[in-house]
Amino acid sequence: HGHRNWYGYRSDETDTSINLNSAVEFGEDWRVLSVYGDPKDVTFEYHYYPNTKHRTDMSPWREEAILKGDSKATPEERVQILVKQLRNTKGINEKWLNLSISSFNFCRDVFYSVAWDDLHRIARGLFIDTLGWKILARGYVKFFNYNEKSFNSKQWLKDNLQFPVICYRKYNGFLAMASWDRTNERLFIASKSTDESTHASLAKEILEKYADMAEITKYLQSRDVTMLFEICTHKDPHIIKEPERPVLLDIVRS
To answer: Is 171 exposed, middle or buried, given 0-12, 13-18 or 19+ CB atoms closer than 10 A?
Structure first.
C-alpha cells in the first residue's frame, strides 16, 4: 500500500496487509516481496535491500539538493552548480548588486501559490560571490507555520521532535546580515535582497552606533560565516515596543 509507514511496521505486521513501505529516501531498506505458488498455496518471501544513496536530513542545504550527487566537485564548483540551478528555476529572481555579487530570492508568485521546493526555500536573502564562487551571506531557510507543511505537522513533530527543545524570544525588528566580502575586501551588510536599501543603511547605522564594529570585522575576516541580526529601531515605523539596538540572533556557516 502507498501510505507512509510512520510507525515503522514490519512487512508482515498484520494478517490482512503486506507493508512494503519504508522511508527508503532517508536510508531505510528497500522492501521487496516475492510470491510463490498458486492461490491456494501461496508462499511469501521478504527481501530487504540497503539503500546507500538517500537524504541525510530534512534541510534544503543538504549536499544532494545542491549537487545532485556530484560528490567530487570542489567547493567553488558546488557553488557554480547551485547558481546554475537557481538561475534555471522558475520563481527565483536574481539581482546583480555589482560585478561580483548576486542576490537570489523567491518571487511573490511562489509565496502566494505555496509552490515551494528546496531551491525556493534557500533563495531567501541568499548572496553569492559569482567571481570567487562563494556563498557570501545567507539568511534563514524559509520556515512555515505549524501544520502548514507535512514536515511540521502534528504527526511529523510527534515522530521527529527531539528534546530538549529550546525556545527563543522573537524580537520586533527586521533582519540584517553581516559577512566579509573577500573579493572586494570589505564588510558586507545587507537586508533582504540588497546592501543598498534603506533598511540596509539603517542596519549599518544601528550596528555602528551600538556594536563593536572592529571586533565584528575581525571575527568575520577569519571565518566563512554570516552574522544574523534583528535590528530594532523606531526609525522603521513597523517596529514598536522595542528599545533601539541590534540583537545578534545567530551565526551561520556561509
So the answer is: middle
> Which residue, 46, 11, 6, is CA-closest to 26?
6
3-state secondary structure of 214: helix
Spell 181-213 as b/e; 16+ CB within 10 A means b: bebbeebbbbbbbbbeeebbebbbebbeeebee
DSSP code per residue over 110-177:
HHHHT---HHHHH-SSEEEETTTTEEEEE-PPP---TTSSGGGSHHHHHHH--SSP------SSEEEE
Contact (Cβ atoms closer than 8 angstroms) between residue 104 and residue 92: yes
E strand or H helix at 208: helix 198-210
pLDDT tens, position by position, 27-41: 678 899 999 988 888
CB 64 within 8 A of CB 71: no
Helices and strands in the chain: count of H runs, count of E runs:
7, 10
Q: How many CB atoms lie within 10 A of CB 44?
A: 12
Confidence of residue 2 (pLDDT cuts 50, 70, 90): low
Residue 175 phi, psi dihedral angles, 5° rounding: -85, 135
- Provide the phi-psi class of 190: left if phi over 0, else alpha when psi is between -120 and 50, else beta: beta
In this predicted model, what pLDDT tens digit does every residue of 204-218 receive, in sequence order?
999 999 999 999 999
Averaged confidence pLDDT in the chain: 84
Q: With cut-offs at 50, 70 and 90, classify the pLDDT of residue 26.
A: low
Bridge partners for 30 per DSSP: 49
